[in-house]
Design goal:
alpha+beta, two-stranded antiparallel sheet, 18% helix, 9% strand
């Protein structure tokens, strides 16, 4: 049975999609770490509407300097 090949989501190189590739679907640990770093730095975002908490609900805004 032939091993299925997929394109690495990070660099585009073909890599085997099997249990022999511990980084699947990535081609290497480097590509996997680059992708993880992009998620951690919030470079990737899922589109959607803001929740009330994100839209400036009380307690999330910085206090006015006049009141200090």
């Amino acid at each position: 049975m032939a091993v299925r090949k997929v394109r690495c989501p990070q660099c585009g190189a073909e890599s085997p999609y099997s249990t022999d590739n511990p980084w699947r679907p990535f081609c290497s640990e480097r590509c996997k770490q680059i992708d993880l770093g992009a998620w951690a730095s919030e470079s990737y975002r899922i589109a959607g509407q803001q929740s009330d908490d994100e839209a400036g609900a009380p307690g999330l805004d910085f206090p006015d300097a006049k009141g200090i």
